[in-house]
Design goal:
Elements (H helix, E strand, L loop, with lengths): L1 H7 L4 E9 L8 E9 L2 E9 L2 H26 L1
Antiparallel strand pairs: 1-2, 2-3
């Protein structure tokens, strides 16, 4: 997650991380939920993949995207 923080310029504090299986078998799909705090506000990201590392990174980036969107909306509303 540090690489994502460096690329985006946002420093996230991971509050919670949950993995659950969506399907069964050797090609099982795992779903990741991550709760990340940016500047005192919590955002939830989620993603699914057969590769749990991929799903984790995508879930974190999903939360980063939500934080960036919220920042942009706040900035343009002012």
């Amino acid at each position: 997650m540090e690489a994502s923080d460096q690329l985006t310029g946002l420093k996230g504090n991971r509050l919670d991380y949950t993995v659950r299986s969506i399907t069964r078998g050797t090609d099982a799909v795992g779903e990741v939920f991550v709760h990340v705090e940016f500047d005192g506000t919590s955002y939830t990201g989620k993603a699914a993949s057969t590769d749990i590392v991929d799903a984790s990174a995508r879930a974190y980036l999903n939360a980063v995207n939500k934080a960036c969107y919220a920042r942009e909306r706040t900035r343009t509303a002012a």
